[in-house]
Amino acid sequence: MESVETFVKKLNDGELVGCYGEVVRELKARKIITNKNITGELGEYLVINHYCNTPNLTKLQRAPTGTKNVDALSTQGDRYSIKTITSKTTGSFYDLEPKGSATKDRQVFEFLIIAILDENFLLNKILELDWDDFIKFKTWNSRMNNWNVTVTQKLISGVKNVL
């Protein structure tokens, strides 16, 4: 049986583009993803599976679609935000006070999980931050007027490394 890599290289451009749509449909049919944010959805799926199938880790389940700021819930009721990256910076966090605000941020989740995927979209690393870690490591994105987290060596050594 030939490898997927060999099979894909034999496809012409039209066939290759068509395969993408088929793969997305199959990922949706298997409930691995639910929308077209493939990187984010894939990371959520992989993280939840890892937590559920690893002894001594909290069992997670997907949060209901449309739940604001929360992607997974633990069996203990904790709220988890999951951000998936293939580079160094997470996506945006909304519903927090802007930089310089005198008002303290309202806690919108208990834990942030950063799923780091490799170039093949396989799970390479999982970092877990509690709310206090998140507050410590969040950085202001002045272009977007919101917060994100940049994965640095300091962050990696200062938070829980799950994988």
CATH topology: Trna Endonuclease, Chain: A, domain 1
Radius of gyration based on Cα positions: 18 Å
Intertermini distance: 32 Å
Spatial shape? globular
Count of discrete structural domains: 1
What report would you give on this structure?
The chain has 163 residues and is of the alpha+beta class. The protein has a single domain, classed as 3-Layer(aba) Sandwich (Trna Endonuclease, Chain: A, domain 1), CATH 3.40.1350. Helix content is 33%, strand content 23%. The chain contains 5 helices and 8 strands, in the order H-H-H-E-E-E-E-E-H-E-E-H-E. The strands form 2 sheets. Strands 1-2-3-4-5-8 form a 6-stranded mixed beta sheet. The chain is globular, with a radius of gyration of 18 Å. The two termini are 32 Å apart. The mean pLDDT is 95.
Which helices and strands occur, and which strands form pairs?
Layout: H1 4-10, H2 13-29, H3 38-53, E1 60-62, E2 72-74, E3 79-85, E4 111-117, E5 123-130, H4 131-137, E6 138-141, E7 146-149, H5 153-158, E8 160-161
Parallel strand pairs: 3-4
Antiparallel strand pairs: 1-2, 2-3, 4-5, 5-8, 6-7
Short description:
The protein is α+β, with helices and mostly antiparallel strands and 163 residues long.
Pick out its properties:
163 residues, alpha+beta, Trna Endonuclease, Chain: A, domain 1, 6-stranded mixed beta sheet, two-stranded antiparallel sheet
